[in-house]
Amino acid sequence: MPSDRKIKNADPILIDMGCKYKGYCSDMTRTIFMGCILEEIKPVYDLVLNCQERVLEEMRSNYNIKSLSRIVDDSFKLNNYVLIHSLGHGVGLDIHEMPFVNSKNENFLKENMVVSNEPGIYLPGKYGIRIEDTVLINKTDCISLTNSDKGYVVI
Ligand SMILES: [Mn+2]
Hints:
With about 160 residues, the chain is an alpha+beta fold. It is about 20% helix and about 30% strand.
């Protein structure tokens, strides 16, 4: 949650932003670091990024939405984390619209849908790591419309 807390050295900073073009929304999140990255945070960041990229590899038309979410669910559970926030949502005239990408959605992705891919790990009272791209679904693959770097960014 946004707050007035002053940013300190080694803080992860989660930036969730987007813009509108001719009425259509975009959505992206990057988590960057102030000064340095604590060693304990690196595996968490790496896990989120790895899941995000695996989902990107799978996203295509006729892919079962709940199976997509399960990829992340299973991977997080193996590492003793939980996917609290849903994996993604449709992006269009509204910033959050159908299809909602979560483990309960029985529907399938369809060509030309635009959805977010945003796995995140949130540790209450500590920090959150989320990486989010806006993705266009094609027949056999997908195109990430967000081209910003996803490696470690330290400012
Ligand atoms: Mn989003």
